[in-house]
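Table 4 source record.
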Amino acid sequence: MKPESMDAIFQALGHSGRRRVLDIVREKPGCSVNDVCAYFDISRIAVMKHLRVLEAAQLIVSRKEGRVRRLFFNAVPIQMVYDRWTTEYSAFWASRLTDIKYRIESKGEQDG
């Protein structure tokens, strides 16, 4: 994953309104822009700006059906972010944290 792509993902997820849009689209696959707008007290233009940011980060994919734009959640960018930090380090840190846990527990048993 390119650093610019990751920047776009974090920028998109860094705004509570965009996270809310993403939640709506995830819960209602194929919803329209109007469907999303119904959840907000902001203008349609403001919602469209949030959608553009989410689409630029590839978190939302849209498909035009006549005059209606259908929106779909794309989990791949989030999975790529997750994989970047967890696959290499999760086993290492999980074993370290387990060691610390057991040391603390055995120390408590010796003191008690």
